[in-house]
Each structure stands twice: as C-alpha cells, then as structure tokens.
Amino acid sequence: MLSKNQSKLLRALAQKKYRKQHQQYLVQGEKNILELLDAGLKVVHLFATTEFLSAHSAKLAGVTCTETDSDSLSKVSTLVSNNAAIAIVPFPESAEVDTSGIVLALDGVSDPGNLGTIIRLADWYGLNQVVVSEDCADHLNPKVISATMGSFVRIDVVRCDLPEFLASYSGDIYGAYLNGENVHGTAFCACGVLVMGSESHGIREPVGQFINTPITIPAFGVAESLNVAMATGIILDNMKRQN
Which value, to the nearest 10 degrees, does the dihedral of the CA atoms of residues 14, 18, 21, 27 take? Predict the structure, then answer.
C-alpha cells in the first residue's frame, strides 16, 4: 500500500518546483507506463494495482514496485481516471539541438495539452525532437506527458533561448503566420526550422526577426485561426510529403 510519504511525494511531483527539486516526474496511466517500460527507460518506483502487476510481470524485472489499490492511485493521480499505475521517473538527460533534418521549434506555447499533442505529432512524422522556448509549458508536466500518448519516450524536448538558436542557424527558417506563402505551393527543404507560435500571440518579434520564409495554411472558411497543434500537423504533413 501507499505510505503517507509516498502519497505526499506523488502529489508534490504534480508541481513544477518539486519536480525540479527532486529531478523526477510522473508517468501515469496504463498506456504511458507500458510505453515507458518498452522503451527501457529507468523507473525509480512504480505504484500499481495487483491486476497491472500480474498482467505485465515480464516487463517489470528490476523495477521497484509497490502494490496498491485503484482507489489509492486515483487519489494521488492528476488524471481524471487513473486506476492502473503511476511511475516516478528521473529527469531525462539534456539533449542538443539536432539540425540534420527538420527542426520543429515552438515559441511560447504555454498550454500543456497543445505541447503534448505536438510531441505526439512529431513522433508520428518521424522527428526525434521538439525545440521549445524557455517560456513554453513544462514538457514534464503530467498533462503534457498524458497528451503525448506515449510519444514522450521517443521525442527529446530541447529547451533553449530560441532567438539565440535561430540567430546561429544558417538554413531556411519557416514561420507559421496568417499571411505568408501558401504551404500548398511552398518548396520545403529537407533541412530547415519550422517555428510555430501560440494561438493567442503567434510568433513574437524576437523570434520572428529570424524567419526568412513566412508560410500560411490557406483558409476556405471564416474561422479566425487554427489550434496550434492542428496547424503544426498540417504543415508537417506538407513538409514530409515533399521530403
């Protein structure tokens, strides 16, 4: 069963300051836990129901596990419904920006659900990383991890001074705007940076000054804008279709 100290730690790791203090984060729910185990990433401690432990015992060799009941898990979980398992996982190692292919960069995307969905999109389109500005949502936020649907194990998130990175990049830098070159007619390079801004603020000037190819998704209706994750998927599809 969960001890008081274990419950306290699990609740604390839902908050950024305690994740940073402990250098640990939460992975919750059966699908994400199984992705974590299949990827061979280190698990500090797994809390799970008898059913989960029995069903996946072959994957749990060497993992420190505590058996508990579904009600106890639900009480310490940040998810609306989580009655299978919660893992405490150490922070991933820092990664460098890989400029050998398409670099997806996010400027000020603060919504955890959007960030998680974009990480999942990056995984779908065969990228290995997402570069985020320093004020983007915390990629280890439980809501972000949940929204990735397991893709967090395959995608490195590199947090950096985005204007500084773009200033040092010598290739094509595409930026999503309401007014720009139609993505259906853009000749995308196999290597380049795609910058996406938040839906509310778009790409901000400190980043926008480095964009040399403004692009847009043509509208056929009257909606004012697209959700940033949806727009990212559409543009990545156009880029990957050519390369």
Answer: -10
